[in-house]
Hints:
By secondary structure, the protein is mainly β. It contains 2 helices and 8 strands; from the N terminus they run βαβββββββα. It has helices spanning 33-38, 118-128, and strands at residues 13-18, 41-49, 53-55, 73-75, 84-88, 93-97, 100-106, 110-114.
Amino acid sequence: MKAGKNLVIVGDRVLIDPDEGIDKRSSGLYLPPTVKEREKVLSGYVVKTGPGYPVPDPTVSDEPWAAAGKKVKYVPLQATTGDYALFLKEAAVEIEFEEKRYLIVPHSAILALVRIDLTDMEHEGEADA
């Protein structure tokens, strides 16, 4: 994304850069023709995530005039930037930001994530040496 503008994703939503009609994904994930025909499932890379699920502040008093407490806390999302996500198409909302197409998906609509674990790759390199 270009400097100057910042797209803020709120709550439990995830910004995804969708794959465009590829049978076998670069992540090694393969979608069978039955899924593709019905187009119920889409996939793409996670570009940005919201802060997560808000957690109520247990210190809130019954006095609305009292000073506000701490900042809102969030339970973080499982999806992180760079993950490859498989998600339900019907839950996705298409947007265009700076002439690029993205999908905003609620975290609950994500079916699976493919994540490259760099620590495993480092250990494989040590084993080869």
